[in-house]
Write a structure and sequence with these properties.
mainly alpha, 4 helices
Length: 81
């Protein structure tokens, strides 16, 4: 507990310690984007146009072929790593 108290003292805005990365609600912009993306039917398991678009953009940035798994939280990404 001593280390946690020291960290809390160094970061006064922390108030309550460490928490999960998915405790906050989604912003209105995120909710609007989810609604827009969920209109109509889409191919499952990464074959949808949004995942393909992300893969193409990241392949361009990293200059290599790649596959992505889009997940909602850092915890989910860690579980896949």
């Amino acid at each position: 507990m001593k280390v946690c108290n020291q960290i809390t003292e160094m970061l006064p805005g922390l108030r309550g310690g460490f928490t999960s990365d998915n405790i906050a609600g989604a912003s209105s912009e995120v909710l609007e984007a989810i609604v827009a993306c969920s209109a109509g039917a889409a191919q499952p398991y990464g074959a949808d146009k949004h995942t393909i678009s992300v893969e193409m953009r990241l392949a361009d940035i990293f200059e290599c072929d790649l596959r992505v798994s889009l997940v909602p939280t850092g915890s989910a990404a860690s579980a896949l790593a």
